Amino acid sequence: MVFSWEKVNPDGAVDPLPLPFSIIDEVIEDVLEAVGEQVDAIEKRKRCAEYEFSLQEAGPSSFVQVPGRIACAYVEPRGTARMAVGTSQGEALLVDTRKGEVVAHAHPFPESEPVTCVSLCSESAYQEIFAGPGIDAPTLPSPPLKLFAAGVNTPKILVYDIQKEAYGILLKPACAIQLPKPEETEETEVDRPVIEQLHTRGVYGGVHVVALLPDRTVRVFLCPLGEPDLEDEANVVLDTPIAEGDEDDEEAEHEAGGPEEEFAQAPQVNTAMFSLSLTQLAPMRHLPMPELDTITLMVFSPRPRDGAYGVGVSAGQVPTLCFSSSVESNAVLAHFIPPPTPLAAPAGLELDELLMKEIPKHGVLPDPEFTKKLQPRRRWSMPAKTSATAVSPNGGIFAIGGCQGSLALVNTATGPSLRTMLPGHYGAINALNFHRDRILVSVGADCYVHQYCMQTDTLLARHLSSPPPEPAVVLGATACQTMPLAVTLDSEGSLRLWDLKRGCKIARMSCEGPIDDPKQKADTEEDPEATVKPVIKLEQDETPKLLLSTATAFCAICMSMGANEEHVEVEGGAEDEGAEAPEADAEGAHSPAEAQDRSWLVFFDQVQVLKKLFPSLPKGDVAKSFEALSKEELAKLQPQGVPSTMEKATLLSKKKPPEDPAARARSPPSKPTKTRLMSRSRSKLDTSNIMIMKLTAENLRKFAAAQAAQQEAAGGAKKVASSFGSAGFARSATLNTADRQKAEEAILPHGVPKNWQVSVRKHLKKALTGKDTRQSRIQKRIDQLKKEVGGE
């Protein structure tokens, strides 16, 4: 039955519903329309950048598993590829983040004493000595990189020279700094490390070593640089043969001697040059000083952009600044540490006596006669207690964050003096970090991440750290110095990668999973054909605890926290570790959790991460290419997320339906091309272009005709039709091509694929002829068995 439809004006149409039901219908329609609009608005909002709908995920590029707990870690503020790590098992490790491996290690203290403070210094320079008129001073090389380590009980700071040898990196004992013994008071009854925080800064003629002691005083030592190597003896093979027994003697000597004997022949520093008092760190005059665990020191030197010590006339006149603050006080102190005095001959000598004086050696410094006390040059009272501090890599800007969200900037090169107050957070500022001297990144307890421009003192961007409605509190942040990238860490252990130039979030970072670095290769000793990438599998409590940034990679320190929670310290400082040795149980064995302590250094190579996130990024210098792109160009390079259901439906509606078989049969045959030959070889199960057949009257008529033809074929008639409307006719000699096409068009439904027609036609032909069908083979087998048995 065919219905005829008419167009009716909806305004003039009569509502067939009675009066109360029509009102209810209108109300329901209004409600559904309003709900649909709200659903569309929610879906649109969830697909914005705030909800991280299309945010990609980046995996680690390399990792280092460290036995024991990591007690302290240090990276140089100017962003090099080196990192120093101190462990609870008494190891001081030097890690190359470019390779993602430990290149050197040492046991500074006896009996595996934990290393609580480490530091690196490569910014010092030798002083030039005037040898006389007409005598050119020798060209001095750069001093070797130095590694500083301090333990829990040994009152020393051990200094190593990091030297590159033919077979690798060597840690050579360079100097030992003797710490003063703390005075026995009621507060020092509890065992504490001999040093709370350790900071180093290279100067013109030595290294300033700043140590916070348990008696709340700060001692400043001047570490000598050592005599320069005027001849490069690295990679030189000795001509003298090694006598038999030399190696055994060296091993025996190494076993007999410990760290004390290694540093016995090294220079000793016994007296501190300066002593700093922190009594003014109290909020008010009559209030007590803050606790030792809450004090933070920042040691730096203001330098021009891309400058270095020892370059220029005024390079030796730059002082070292020491800013101290506490989370229990709103006071901030600024101390000035004078640079070393230039080497000069004593005054009042005659010419003959002056000529008899020996030229002092480079890199050798005498011990000072006494320790000078320094008073603070500046003291600021902030609006609230200080919760976070940071200094720019060039030392020109010092940032102070408060527990109530206030943020202040201090100019260190001009005074120092208070520069400005920036619009802060709605909660406490948990971390601050600088990208060069251009952008300041701040994270707070209000779950927001801020980016400030240091040239205009304005807020550039403000975003939530994680998707709403319950974002996590941000605990830490670190910024790269080579490209505008930063990583934040929240309270749930999640990492986010930020683009500081365009002010947006570009990726989630996971510390678990396969290594993405193509340089990482599988172990080929057992299986040369193995291509399986190494996989990082962390325990449930092994979450990221600290973020660090070097010139090549971001580093996340992952480890579990036991009952006695240990904090990882940056800048060489260390908090109270409990210092008590783990107690043994009744049988004298430690707990299994302690025996299995481990830590992870997970590295995210910045170049590899960008290549994975943006595969079509121009090759060459990835950092310059990334910085040159605009926000729109970067969005085009980034792979898009999964399309929504509405987008899929829109794409499906634009897709063309398959061609009508009747129209295809009427079209003249064409020569087979390479594409067609390839399509014929595809599997018969390829139904990617199959669409649902329309249930129309015409198709129903064709299905009925096909079923009638099938019934006639089953009854033994000559006219044959295929099942399921595949238009498979037996090629009868009585029918010509035109009649056959008309018959096929009569029973062929629209939308049935051609490969199904061919398949059904073949099976139908076998069924009619009785050749090689399953039923015929079974019947033949039954007849054969009857003959063998001889009965029915």
TrEMBL record:
Residues 673-682 have a biased composition (Basic residues). Gene3D superfamilies: YVTN repeat-like/Quinoprotein amine dehydrogenase. It comes from the Eukaryota. InterPro entries: SKI8, WD40/YVTN_repeat-like_dom_sf, WD40_repeat_dom_sf, WD40_rpt. Residues 769-792 have a biased composition (Basic and acidic residues). This is WD_REPEATS_REGION domain-containing protein. Keywords: Repeat, WD repeat. The keyword Repeat applies. Residues 572-586 have a biased composition (Acidic residues). Residues 567-594, 637-683, 767-792 are annotated as: Disordered.
